[in-house]
Amino acid sequence: MRRAGHAEWTKLRTEAGNGWLVLGVVALTVAVGAAVAMTSRCDAVGCGEDPARLSLTGVMVGQVVVAIVAVLMVGNEYSSGMMKTTLAAMPRRLTVLGAKVCVLTAVMLVAGTVAVLASLLTGRIVQPDRGFTEAHGYGALSLADGPTLRAAVGSVLYLVLIGLLSLGIAMVVRSSATAIGIVLALLFIFPILAQVVADPDWQRHLQQISPMTAGLAVQSTIDLGKLPIGPWKGLGVLALWAAGALTAGGWLLRARDA
Amino acid sequence: MTATLTPSRAAARPARGGFAQLLHAEWTKFRTVRGWVASSVGAVLVICLVGLLATAAGNQSGPEGTSALPVGPGGQAVNDSFYFVHQPLQGDGTITVSVSSLTGVVATDPKSSRPGLAPWAKAGIIVKDGLDQGSAYAAMMLTGAHGVRMQYDYTHDIAGAAGRATREQPVWLRLQRSGDTVTGYQSTDGTKWTEVGSARLSGLSATAQVGLFVASPSVEEKTGTGTGFAPAVATGAFDQVDLGGRWSAGSWQQRQVSDGAGTSGSYSQTTKGQAVATGSGFTVTGAGDIAPVVGGPATSGVRTIENFLVGAFAGLIIMVVVGAGYITVEYRRGLIGVTLAASPRRGRVLVAKALVVGSIAFVVGLVSAAVMVPFGGQRSESNGFPVLTVPSGTELRVVVGTGLLLAVASVLALAVGTILRRSAVAITVVVVGMVLPYLLATASVLPDGASEWLLRVTPAAGFAIQQSVARYEQVVTVYAPGSGYFPLAPWSGFAVLCAYAAVAFAVAVVLLRRRDV
Predict the structure, then answer these.
(1) pLDDT for B157-208, tens place per residue?
(2) Biggest distance spanned by C-alpha atoms of chain A
(3) Domain endpoint, select from B244, B263, B292
(4) In A21, B30, B162, B396, which residue has its Cα 20 to 30 A from A243's Cα atom?
(5) Whether B307 and B282 share a structural domain
């Protein structure tokens, strides 16, 4: 398993473009978070804005780069025929999948932590000038604050889980193009559909099963009662999606010819 | 010894029709890849399935929750509810009146109320084809905050003089019917008259209902968490009612036109519509509006035709995958070398590809929209949600626009795919560029200014072509992306998307020419 992990790490490290993509996760997350922090403002007590969530909005953009990295880890091997070599060298196929999961998790934990901490730091610097002050009922963003810490840890885990979901889907369809299409559709179509459905119950259920909407509930620090699903429960929904995709991918990897 | 060289058949074929041949070659490539054909057919099914899911929910308040909306002479859904004091006028004639006050009451909660007047509360005179909702009309009115107005057939609004009415300084209004034409006048003293405008109401029946009316749309209430609308009524005092022409012996009748007040406003528990005769006129209290229906918080129980096309987002992702794959697969399999050797004018190869994939995406969008708009409407109405009727020209633009949207998106994906030569990145760039800004702008994550900005400068502006609801100066609502209003007009928004596609395509052609395969 250690050697399998090392092999996957070498493949990920030496593939041209992956370094840029991982940098892209951090840069896009921080840049979009900063842009939102600089445009949003709170004008009075009870403005209903969530400063932690606003600074972490960039995760919505960073996640798609995570998805690209994960999809390419599998898609490139199939398109180049490398997969045959990989499986010949490591005939225990679930070990291959496990190694990919471990390497991706480790890389995204590091990239996600950097991105999330930088986003929160930007928010902490920018937001007091945008009306998020003691007078309006907001303290500066701080990891010592329980909900903010949960939002930070949850956002990092969210990015990791999006990566694992994408990895699983790529394992199932074996093509980067199709896989990224399915991942983006899963992420974006649920929230758009939820806006259109007029019945509030349906809307709530759609939001509860949507990987993105439910997963990002973990970023909320105020008005938790108004969320369609609790913060950790929501992240759990995303974890179920990821587990489902990985199970399907692992089963097919074992069952199919390469 | 002589040998006769027979030219090969390919070389013997004349070079003319080169582009048609190229197009045929590209079409053959598309047609013979099972995945692409299946995806295109699948896209139609997905657009329809997602659309059906969006209309599956039933209205919890039951079939009588919101009744079907009347349709005006222009073909769009309208609100037509007001308190009407009327009598029939045969043929030509005039009505003149002075309005000496316009006041209002806003319900703050079911039991209590406060004084307040909607900016577009209306008190005035009207010539109306009949008492049916949605019938043609022309009216002169004093409004809460926008002075004297002449309005006709729901969507037309002509400004008169600004100002308010007082007992000492009333506002005089006059309507004159002559044939199909109704002309509106206003005056400050009842002797010197100024024409405000005139309206041609084709087919106005010989006997029109003419009289006094008062209406008040609900009042916008800004709270910390958003914008709400509170029911309001208005009361207008009319004096010196003067009639000219063949009237039916001076017996006035009064009624509320429409039982429900549509989406524009309603009576609260403590108010009702009425007309009380005073010395030389009436004091009339009414709620509702005579205006086109717009999107926004007040129309939450009403569906628009673009609601049935929400599946276009899913179809768009599929066609983007196909469009990007159409070129990146050639790079991956090395087919691009053969393609470019067979057709050395590389720009034309890309044009042929764009034509093929764009046409297919156009057909996918057009067919699914042409199915979903009527079918979704039918389903929605049977589930208790009325559909906001729009003029047939708008409906055609939305249906054809869905096809164009998918076509341009797939060409954009083809161009980005050529530039990047990597399908996953190209697909993500296009989908994220088009869909994520739309999602961020409509999910009320961002402040309004930032949302509108996103829908002006990103390729997501193109979704404006699916907007069926129109903006009207004379109707107050939340004209924001969240309630279906794009900051750019439909075709300008689409032009922004086209500009992105054109630039990407130009860069792709230059790179394809310059690069080695």
Answers:
(1) 999 888 888 888 899 999 999 989 999 999 988 889 999 999 999 888 888 9
(2) 65
(3) B292
(4) A21
(5) no
